Amino acid sequence: MTWLRALAAAGLSVLLPGAGHALIKDWLRMLVFSGLYFTAVVLFLPPPNEIAAVGSLTESMEFVASEIDTMGQFVLSFIVLFAAIDATFRALGFPPGSNGDSADGPSCPHCGKELDEDLSFCHWCTTRLEPEEPEEPGESEPTAGPAEARN
């Protein structure tokens, strides 16, 4: 399931940088990558009215390919590639701590994200959780009573 999620995040990031991060609910990175991509599109692609003035979709794509320079192609490709790689690694849980390990509550044994104590499954990766059985009083060490503590 984790690999499938990582592949989906990478594929979405190739189509639109930031979309893979939205899939894994990494909202800040989603905003950063989509903002970088749209800024690069505005800076390096010709204005939309020039693209729309060309007749068909095929001619529009040829126009854009002829008008964008090598630096623009590099920047757009780099953002797409870096977003896909970053979304893939974050979906897989790299670097450690990227899955919310800093939480104080219980965490999922499968994905490591914070759990809701009321649920019997992880709402992030849908792993079924085994209920914790309380310790029986006979198994733990006997506690000293107030009279024994004074001696």
Q: What's this, in brief?
A:
The chain is an all-alpha fold and 151 residues long.
Termini separation comes to 59 Å
Q: Helical percent range?
A: 40-55%
Number of domain units: 2
Total helical elements: 7
Average per-residue pLDDT, rounded, comes to 84
Sheet having the most strands? none
Structural class designation? mainly alpha
Low-confidence stretches at least 5 residues in length (pLDDT < 50)?
none
How many individual β-strands?
0
Molecular shape: elongated
Pfam family, one: DUF7575
Keywords: Membrane, Transmembrane, Transmembrane helix
InterPro entries: DUF7575
Protein name: Zinc ribbon domain-containing protein
Topology record:
Blueprint: H1 2-15, H2 19-23, H3 27-44, H4 48-53, H5 57-67, H6 70-92, H7 146-150
Helix pairs in contact: 1-6, 3-6
Transmembrane segments: 71-89
Region (Disordered): 130-151
Protein name: Zinc ribbon domain-containing protein
Structure description:
By secondary structure, the chain is an all-alpha fold. Helix content is 54%, strand content 0%. The chain has 2 domains: 2-92, no CATH class; 100-132, no CATH class. The chain starts with a helix and ends with a helix.
Name the descriptors.
elongated; transmembrane helix; Zinc ribbon domain-containing protein; 54% helix; 151 residues
